[in-house]
Design a protein that fits this description.
Elements: E1 2-4, H1 10-19, H2 28-32, E2 37-44, E3 47-58, E4 64-73, H3 82-96, E5 101-107, H4 111-119, E6 123-124, E7 130-136, E8 159-165, H5 172-185, E9 190-194, H6 214-232, E10 237-241, H7 247-256, E11 260-268, H8 271-281, H9 284-296, E12 309-312, H10 317-327, H11 331-334
Parallel strand pairs: 4-5, 8-10, 8-11, 9-10, 11-12
Antiparallel strand pairs: 1-2, 2-3, 3-4, 5-7, 6-7
């Protein structure tokens, strides 16, 4: 779990200082009481497994910037996305406080740190025994802190994500819960997320991403933060109910799930079944909206399909969950 260290929690900061050998761990009160001090810790249960700290600096022209002085993760907890989550939280807090840029210094030969910073958009400023990175921030700094893909990404795919897509009323959330239950009962730390709950926000800003994708963007940004916390808490499996109808959307969700191998499954059911489920679940304008969308829905051309496979949701949730686990080759994890 990633959390900000409040000014009053000197004990937590000093615990982190001692954990990572930063002096004797008794300077928390002075640091937290200093202007612009900003610190976060990552914990796994009662154990502190990572921390970062620095300052929000005000310039004479009233603009401001962030300075990250230290970011460290315990060796046995590295390559799990914790450093990325800490940096993500630090940048977001600074941007929300009005900072427009962040800078940090790291060793020229510190390849893991440099890979992380460059994957998050850091621009190299100098060469030598140490190197400096500058980051541009904005009020939604999470956008620049998404997990990266491509040759510069840190390869940490030790977790599994199963994304369930389909029309409203097809049963995505119910089946997601069933799959999560199977994995949990088998002893696997599993997170289950309904992405609709990550975008309960309105009205949408007047300036939104093109194509009316504001809520899709918001879901992915929030999913990245939620997954980082679940993973820091020990989760190795994630089941998410969502709607993905394009390769671009699939890639966006995959980027939000740092360190995950992603499998996308489309649930389908006959129209009458879906319509009955909607009427049992929804009322008023929400029901009308979903029924109208169902009537207007057109089958996706085969060449445009982005899912790994399709499953018909015409049995009990447990039976459908079992078929999905078998076809996704996850049953070895359960048995």
């Amino acid at each position: 779990m990633i959390r900000r260290v409040p000014a009053a929690d000197v004990q937590l900061f000093d615990r982190a200082s001692r954990r990572f050998g930063a002096a004797a761990g008794g300077g928390g009160q002075a640091f937290l009481g200093s202007p612009g001090a900003l610190a976060f810790v990552a914990s796994h249960g009662a154990e502190i497994v990572g921390w970062c700290w620095g300052y929000h600096l005000i310039r004479p022209d009233t603009s401001s910037m962030l300075y990250l002085h230290r970011l460290e993760v315990a060796p046995e907890h590295r390559r799990l996305g914790i450093g990325r989550a800490l940096l993500h939280a630090f940048m977001s807090a600074g941007a929300q406080a009005g900072a427009t840029r962040m800078f940090l210094t790291t060793g020229e030969t510190n390849a893991p740190a440099r890979t992380l910073y460059e994957s998050l958009g850091g621009g190299l400023a100098a060469q030598g025994p140490t190197v400096n990175y500058w980051f541009l921030l904005n009020p939604d700094a999470t956008a620049s802190a998404r997990p990266a893909s491509g040759p510069k990404a840190v390869q940490t795919s030790v977790c599994q994500a199963l994304l369930l897509t389909g029309v409203a009323g097809v049963g995505k959330s119910t089946v997601a819960d069933a799959i999560g239950g199977v994995l949990t009962e088998a002893g696997h730390a599993t997170a289950v997320v309904d992405t609709d709950m990550l975008a309960q926000f309105g009205p949408s800003p007047s300036v939104s991403p093109p194509g009316g994708r504001f809520y899709d963007e918001l879901k992915c940004l929030n999913l990245a933060s939620v997954w980082a916390n679940f993973r820091a808490a020990g989760a190795r499996f994630l089941i998410a109910a969502t709607v993905i109808d394009s390769q671009a959307q699939r890639e966006q969700y995959a980027e939000s799930l740092a360190g995950c191998d992603v499998c996308l499954v489309r649930l389908i059911a006959d129209v009458d079944t879906v319509r009955n489920r909607l009427r049992q679940r929804d009322t008023g304008s929400k029901l009308e909206q979903h029924l109208r969308a169902l009537d207007e829905h057109r089958p996706i051309p085969t060449e445009a399909l982005v899912e790994d496979f399709t499953v018909t949701n015409d049995r009990t949730p447990a039976e459908v969950a079992t078929e999905i686990l078998v076809r996704a080759s996850w049953m070895d994890e359960v048995n």
